[in-house]
Amino acid sequence: MRRDEKEIRNYIKSIKELKISEEKEKKAVQAAKAAFYEGEQKRSLSSFEFLYEQSRYIQKRWWILQAAVLMGLWWFLVYTESGEYVKKGMGMAASLFAVLIMPELWKNRNTGAMEIEGTTFYTLRQVYAARLMAFALADGFFLGIFFAAASFSGRLTLWEAVVQFFIPFNISCCICFGTLYSRKTGSEVFSVFLCMIWDAVWLLFLLQKQIYEAVTEPVWAVIFISSVLYLFYCIGRGQKKWRQIWEGQMLWS
Questions:
Q1: Which of 121, 134, 221, 248 is deepest in the core (most CB within 10 A)?
Q2: In angstroms, what CA-CA distances link 239 with 52, 106, 243?
Q3: Run of H or E residues at 67
Q4: Which pLDDT tens digit goes with each residue over 57-96?
Q5: Sign of CA dihedral 105, 109, 110, 115
Q6: What is the rounded end-to-end Cα distance, in angstroms, of the chain?
Q7: What is the pTM assigned to this prediction?
Q8: How far is CA 162 from the centre of its chain?
Q9: Could you give the 3-state DSSP secondary structure of residue 72?
């Protein structure tokens, strides 16, 4: 046996023979944790930097597809003669626009990377909040351009946008986020399936002309406000109870 290896073995043996009190061991661990967190705090990102870094992880193809959905919808509104039918079909485009948000939010769960990300300095709640904010900013930009162009061309009013687009869009988002934050139904395919059912129900409702025209503007306003409030509730509940919902027992807790 080489001399240096022998010295190492003797040193390890002497360390094992030392009797270290449990109290001193705990103090050493606490001091190490405090030093680690202090160092991380000095190197922590600002809110804007953290948002920017998280946005870089989002695959831009989903934003391109969302923009393509809106461009196609605008083309149908402007260059087809069946404008009324296109407006009533906006709900399906709105549902597809909402579904395209989900793959980026679901990929951590699908790939089993949540336990790894849960050991990082930033929590999963912060990660998902940043990605939701990135999508909200990008989608707000796309929708702003779309509705400005549609309104300028005289093909769509603000009220029609609320009824025909935002109500089905909000409800589709509620379905997607409700499924994403559920402990029992964690399937992305199941979420898309529920959105397809919702599209069918919405389309059948629109085809019932007498029932559709019987709904007054105050009723539509209540439905719209309720859908917005419930959407914020779904997102807020998921952000508040992310630990209990996504993992029954976190391995790192």
A1: 134
A2: 20, 14, 9
A3: helix 61-79
A4: 888 899 999 999 999 988 888 887 667 778 878 888 999 9
A5: positive
A6: 43
A7: 0.72
A8: 22
A9: helix
